[in-house]
Predict the structure.
Amino acid sequence: MKSYFVYILKCRDNSYYTGITNDPNKRIWEHNEGLIKNSYTHSRRPVTLVYSNEFNKVYDAISAEKQIKGWKRKKKEALINRDFDLIHELAKCKNKTSYLLK
């Protein structure tokens, strides 16, 4: 069975890049080699792997990648640190109409 990985890289400028691959070692090598000149990481090398999660189904990996890409930095850092309580707290709605604020 083939595995798929969602990964987060920390770039030289301290930004994060989230991607998906079926070969993490090869993909990180590709990022650091700068093989794709117009990619986000090309001008931010070197990059370091700070998080990865394995999936059995490509659709689950794609879904996780899209979700993480939509997160703010603080939530990504909670994931990197495996602080699931903080992720849960950061996911709570905090606008004026939230039942949590009433």
Remarks:
- Residues 1-70 form a domain with the GIY-YIG endonuclease fold (CATH 3.40.1440.10).
- The CA atoms of residues 72 and 100 lie 21 Å apart.
- The mean pLDDT is 94.
- The first helix runs from residue 24 to 33.
